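Work Package 3 (structural annotation) set out to generate three-dimensional models for the target panel prioritized at the project kickoff. During this period the team completed the workflow that converts sequence records into C-alpha cells, so that structures can be stored uniformly alongside our sequence database. As a representative example, we reproduce one entry of 123 residues exactly as it appears in the project archive.
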Amino acid sequence: QVQLVESGGGLVQAGGSLRLSCAATGRTFSILSMGWFRQAPGKEREFVAAISWGGGSTSYAGSVKGRFTISRDKAKNTVYLQMNVLKPDDTAVYYCAASSSWMAVTPGAFSAWGQGTQVTVSS
C-alpha cells in the first residue's frame, strides 16, 4: 500500500506560479513512476507530467511543456510540480498518483492517488 498526501494548491493570477507537493508513504519501494493529472469541471482527467521514481526520466503534456517542471526529493519521498506562467486554462483539481509501471501516462496504470488539490488561475 502507498499513501499520497498533496498540498500547495490555491488561487493565483494569470502569469503567476504555484508549487504542488506530494508526499509518499508506505510501500514506496513498489513505485516505478509518479505522475500528475488534472481534471477541470466537465472534462476528462488529463495527464500533466510524469517522473521515474529515481528521477532520471520525465515527460510532459504538450500543453504544459516549458511551463511546468516535475521533480523529486528522494530524501523526503516527495514529488513536486512547479507551475509557472499559469493560464486560466490551467484551472483544475490536480492529483498526484503512483504507478508500478514505467513512465505511465494513463490513469488506469496508476494504483494510488492523492486526494486532489484545487488550482484556480484568474484572468
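The two ends are 40 Å apart (CA to CA).
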